[in-house]
Amino acid sequence: MNLASVQQITQRFDTAGITYATGGSGLLYALGLTERVRDWDLTTEAPYEAVAQALGDIDFISLPSGDYPFASSYRLSVEDNDLPVDIIGRYAIHSESGICQLPTWVASTWQSLNMGSPEIWATAYTLMKRDSKAELLFSYITEKGANREIVHSLLDEPLPSTLRSRLQSLL
Asked: Gene3D superfamilies, alphabetically (predicted)?
C-alpha cells in the first residue's frame, strides 16, 4: 500500500503542530481487522484555517460536513490516485439524544501515522449504523482492553441508551 500521500499530509500537520488521528478503514487496517483501506480519515480539533494553511499547495475541496448524521465543523477531501484523504474537523455525529462530540485522540502509531481510538471509532460506527465495523472494533476492544479514560469521556456525551450500556460494559 502506498502511504506517500497520507504521510505527506500528516507530516505537514506535524510541522504545523496540528494534532490528528487516523480513523475509519485506515484504523481497521492498522489493527488487522480488515484487508483493505477504502480511504484515509483524519480527524483534528484544529480550525479550518490552520488545516488549510498547513496543506499549502496540496489541492483539496471542501465538502458538506453537516449532512445527517454528521455534525462536524468541516470536512476537506484530498483526491489521490491511490486513496483519497478526508480531513474531518471537530468530528461529531447526531444521536437520538443530541450531538456527540468525538474527540481526536491519538491511541497509537502505525507506519508513522497517528492512529485514533478504537473506542471512539466503535462509537462513531454505531452512531452511523455501520454495525459490522462497530462490532469489529468492540470485539477488538473486548480482547485487548478498553482505555478507561476515553470510555469515560464518551460517556459524558449524549449517547443512545444501548450504546451507553455497551460502553459501560467495557469498564
From this structure: 3.30.460.40
